[in-house]
Design a protein that fits this description.
By secondary structure, this protein is an alpha/beta fold. The radius of gyration is 21 Å and the shape is globular. The strands form three sheets. Strands 1, 2, 3, 4, 5, 6, 7 and 8 form an eight-stranded mixed beta sheet that branches. It has a three-stranded antiparallel beta sheet with strand order 12-9-13. It has a two-stranded antiparallel sheet with strand order 10-11. It has two domains: 248 residues, Rossmann fold (3-Layer(aba) Sandwich); 87 residues, Ribosomal Protein L9, domain 1. The protein is 28% helix and 22% strand. Bound molecules: S-adenosylmethionine (SAM). This is Arsenite methyltransferase. InterPro entries: Arsenite_MeTrfase-like, Methyltranfer_dom, SAM-dependent_MTases_sf. Its EC number is 2.1.1.137.
Length: 348
Amino acid sequence: MHDIVQDYYGRQLKSSSDLKTDACCDASAIPNWLKPLLANIHPEVLSRYYGCGLVCPPLLEGCRVLDLGCGSGRDVYLLSQLVGASGEVVGVDMTEEQLQVANQHLNYHVDKFGFNNVTFLHGYIEQLEELNLEPGSFDVIVSNCVVNLSTDKGAVLRGLHRLLKEGGEFYFSDVYADRRIPDALRTDPELVGECLGGALYWNDFLALTESSGFRDSRLMESRPLEVTNPALSARSGSVRYYSATYRLFKLAQLEKDCEDYGQAVVYKGSIPGSPHEFILDERHIIEKGRVFPVCGNTWRMLSETRMGPHFDFIGDFSQHFGLFPGCGREIPFLDGQRQSDGASKQCC
Ligand SMILES: C[S@@+](CC[C@H](N)C(=O)[O-])C[C@H]1O[C@@H](n2cnc3c(N)ncnc32)[C@H](O)[C@@H]1O
């Protein structure tokens, strides 16, 4: 699998336009505030972008960030500007040709930005412990269309969990499938190289995050992918693929489900670029000044992370009111009304 991927990204692909899906070609998805930063990046680096989403969470200034499978460095150079001179970005990739392009343009970006806060490392994301990076030393870890290519996704998640600080997050875009992908497709070199063959069934992904130490994964955005190459599309049959961006917080006290403790938060409107509302995830769009009821997990994601100073917090964990309405899973038991109308007599 590593050889197939290194050959695909090191030798076969020359630019984003060689890809056979629309995974990384959604130019409209780049927000206006990022466009000037993208314009500072060397054209060759931009042309070799093979990501499938945007991995730029807010509040990065001064952060230490790790990019898993950084390729030729587009996101590293974007993040370098966002963390600024007091922050640091480390990119890791296993394909020499990709890193060569990234390193070749290092001085170009140092001159443009006026500081050097970037390092590229050669290595495997399943073996992060080999890279001598200090455990618990990263505020944010990102990855753009890479985890699907990994031969041991559990090792990747466990390894990066170890490198994150408590309160840090893994913010990443990847490809998922609507079902478990049949073996014949999982080993098809072209489908693997195009980030389709190795895509996880979304529900297996959620189970894997839990067993790797992350609870309550939050979806930022998703979109269906179109396989634009007719031969690949035919081979894929009925499998549907999606590109999705998730954020996984390293917070030891997160619970499996969203529990209701009667808490609420108020956004101060102070996060740069988000004066009117803050988007924690696709289901939590928090307007400035509004008392916004939250579950215990959301409370911790906001209060025990770098977002904390930008919110006021109402309540505590002293009283529990059951599952948070509409957020956790619905209560599986029939209520008294329905039990007495005969439904309870049916077994199984
Ligand atoms: C689809 S490209 C994405 C590159 C980059 N993130 C971007 O957005 O342009 C996948 C990259 O992940 C790297 N990669 C795949 N599997 C890897 C692994 N197990 N360890 C390290 N790098 C890996 C490949 O070498 C390739 O550069």
